[in-house]
Design goal:
Layout: H1 2-11, H2 16-23, H3 27-34, H4 44-54
Helix pairs in contact: 2-3
């Protein structure tokens, strides 16, 4: 989920601009994704690129299959 991505980004001291550079998009887009005020979301491909940069599993950004979030 986006809270996981945002927490990891901050732990790694990567700015929204840094993520935007990795994804080839604007920092404004990252701000919208991380904001509760917008419905903007990352694509699976974008999450893959972020996971690669964070050196973590893509699955960390999704709830477990047995979660009540589905």
């Amino acid at each position: 989920n986006i809270k996981t991505e945002k927490r990891k980004r901050k732990e790694l001291n990567i700015s929204q601009r840094g993520i935007a550079d990795i994804l080839g998009c604007s920092a404004g887009f990252i701000g919208e994704v991380e904001s509760d005020n917008y419905v903007t979301k990352y694509s699976v491909h974008q999450l893959f690129l972020i996971a690669k940069e964070f050196e973590c599993s893509l699955s960390e950004f999704f709830p477990p299959l047995d979660s009540d979030q589905f």
